[in-house]
Amino acid sequence: MRIRSLNTVLTLMFFLCAGFSSVAASDPFATGEFSWSVSAPLFEPVNHGDDTCYSVKDPSIVHYDGRWHLFSTIRSKNRTHQIEYSSFVDWKDANQAERHLIDFTNGYDCAPQIFYFSQQKRWYLIYQVLNSSRTPSLQPVYSTSTNISDPKSWSKPKLLFDQHPENVKMWIDFWVICDDEKAHLFFTSHAGWMWRSETPLSNFPAGWSKPEIALRGDIFEASHTYRLKGKNKFLTLIEAQDAGRRYLKAFTADRLDGKWSPLAASREKPFVSPRNVHFNGPNWTSSVSHGEFLRSGYDEKLEIDPSETRLLFQGVETETRADENYGKIPWRLGLLTLDQNHVSTKPHGLFPYQRWKIGKPVFKAGPTGTFDAVSVKDPTIVRHEGKWHLFYTSKPQLDNKQFQVGVGYVSAPTLAELNSSKRYDINAIVGETVIAPQIFYFKPHKLWYLIAQRPYDGPCELEPIYLTNRNLEDVNGWSNPKVIKTNRKEKDAFWIDFWVICDEQKAHLFYTDHAGSMFRLETPIDRFPSGFEEEAEHLAVSVHGVDKTGPWRLHEASHIYYVKEEQKYLALLEAVRPHPTKRNYWDSRNRFMFAMIADSLEGPWARVEKDDNDFLGIPDSLYNEDGTRTKYDQVSHPELIRSGFDERLEIKDFRLQVLIQAFDAAKTPDSYDYNLLPWELSVMKNY
Description:
Elements: H1 2-18, H2 28-31, E1 36-38, E2 53-64, E3 67-76, E4 82-88, E5 100-101, E6 109-117, E7 122-130, E8 138-145, E9 158-159, E10 172-178, E11 182-188, E12 193-200, E13 212-216, E14 221-228, E15 233-242, E16 245-253, E17 261-264, E18 277-279, E19 289-293, E20 303-304, E21 310-315, H3 318-321, E22 332-338, E23 356-358, E24 375-384, E25 387-395, E26 406-412, E27 424-425, H4 426-430, E28 435-442, E29 447-455, E30 462-469, E31 482-483, E32 496-502, E33 506-512, E34 517-524, E35 538-542, E36 544-547, E37 550-563, E38 568-578, E39 586-598, E40 606-607, E41 622-624, E42 636-640, E43 650-651, E44 657-662, E45 680-685
Parallel strand pairs: 1-18, 14-20, 23-41, 37-43
Antiparallel strand pairs: 1-22, 2-3, 3-4, 4-5, 6-7, 7-8, 8-9, 10-11, 11-12, 12-13, 14-15, 15-16, 16-17, 19-21, 21-22, 23-45, 24-25, 25-26, 26-27, 28-29, 29-30, 30-31, 32-33, 33-34, 34-35, 36-37, 37-38, 38-39, 39-40, 42-44, 44-45
């Protein structure tokens, strides 16, 4: 009791000190704590005639005369680098806008920057070309126009430097910004350096000084610098790399020729990376690369408004770019929006999880020839009237390379007696395929509900269903499965593992997409199980990262509970790593568990663990009762043993008992067939 009370006090102290429940994070441009939402891809490559276009990247954009004017690099089959221009009024129409190739050179031109130089009343485009007469051949140039809307009006490129600076051996991605007296040219050199050169405004675009190193660090390319409106500060964002993925760092300075200080400039505390973004739809990129802010103006001051921060960037999913040379990587453009009132998702470490005690398996596959002879998995369990009631996904032995999957049921007075009790094949009873169950008693209807999924002949592959029963022990009393109707069924998007939990007013349906995101639908509690089809889908979280082992992401089996003593909601989520040899395959031998917490089922959700790449349940934290290491090499599909059995899915506190599926690693080769994995069920405890 003393330990439990201490944990509760510490948890409450944390929430009071952190202001978790309602206090918005302070100014991110002061704290460096950023959180972003990501649009769907808004701008994709299109072919020009018979020239196949692989990617669109390096965007630079201004809003002028009621329209967006976008300049970007395209990479295609016939030419490696060209600058493309398009214009549109609304972002929803961006991808349909007419594309124009600007005839700067016959060879290499790319990485544009657009701005209006007010002193000369003309538009400038800064970019780079190849000039074989110089070493290095990559050189910064400019072109001008008095009509940004006319792609044919641009002058031929002119070199910014009369002679190549002798102290610069490598340079790339050129960027101009002006203060009240000077124009400043920034660039990077792929060696962890950002350089700066300057010229008086009256001399621009000529007269550049000898470049000097302005910043050293773990940086790569694409430094873009802006004035922060109302803050008397300048912000530079620079692309960096993390295990082959791109992300953005940010630095600030009081002057363009001053010292640059890190604001959000590490893998653990990035400006933008997969660690601090949330997708408004499917997770489509694992890199955040070469971004350009949507500015509050369009002139040479390059001013951005911190209260309305949006960033156009190039992105791509790691799996999509696998084995491709860089020129064929299918970069697309999307829009990041700063969450101004976000609650920080900084991990917290709310309760012990570094060491779990795991007992002997409580439930194993059945004898040869039975409906669950291969595996028992996806557990859901309640205790009612002195018995445990366990529902699970079952798999029989394969026959002619075909397999069946279904739901089994068993009950017993103790967990230890489940394995020897009579098993029932729910699929055989209801005459339909039912998979991945969830059990609870819905008090308003005085009915037991089994939420599950079944195969669906459509783009989603699965669909959510429910069955009802007035008597939990009457195995023949289950109704025929009925579809939980939603608006999402017609979308070309995968979803899996459906989970219902209710608060006092609403029923909430959660599910995942096998791509790093968890989604939520809701309906008034008096309309459940209908009403979901009238509500919009909400993105609850999008979580993936890279640690010392490699990339990982949220996978499936999002299970959410109400923690009574803390008055919080706890989400247990299964994560997964890529298979070490199979391309585009997420490995069933590499599953583990992380957790998130929220004040309400609407969110926002924050990580429980103390570090972004620290996890609630991993094989290395599992110990047998005698202190030896477990035989399991994954922690998968967790179900908390609840203190109640109704629709609130309540647990008492953070003393957790988790029913998981796993199998003996030593007896299961890496060349496994997923349908033959011998899953069994065990309980792990953090106390």
